Amino acid sequence: MVLVGLLLIFAVVFAILQRRMLSPLCNIASFADAVASGERNVTPRGRCYFELASLKDSLLNMVEELATMTDMARKKGVE
What's the CA gap between 59 and 57, in Å, rounded? Predict the structure, then answer.
């Protein structure tokens, strides 16, 4: 009976970790891969929690700045 209770607690904890940490981390990694392959109009899927939300925001800002700098460099090359 105690083992069943422990397994149930473990399953609940794992489900929470999966939803709150592992899935958002995989989504952020997919976003980073897409940006690294040259896509600039992508956004991370899903909702992020805790520090992952901050990481997501930082990555979005980085991609926005990268796009701005790339556009500026192209304009200077044309002039």
Answer: 5
Question: Is-contact 52 21, C-beta < 8 A?
Answer: yes
What is the DSSP-derived secondary structure letter of residue 39? -
For residue 73, the Cα-to-chain-centroid distance in whole angstroms is 27
How do residues 41-71 score in pLDDT, each as one tens digit?
A: 898 888 898 899 999 999 999 999 999 999 9
- N-terminal to C-terminal alpha carbon distance within the chain: 76
Taking only the tens place, the pLDDT of each residue in 12-47 is: 999 888 888 889 999 999 999 999 998 888 988 888
> Residue 67 CA to chain centroid, in angstroms?
18
Using CB atoms within 10 Å of the CB of residue 42, give its burial: 0 to 12 exposed, 13 to 18 middle, 19+ buried: middle
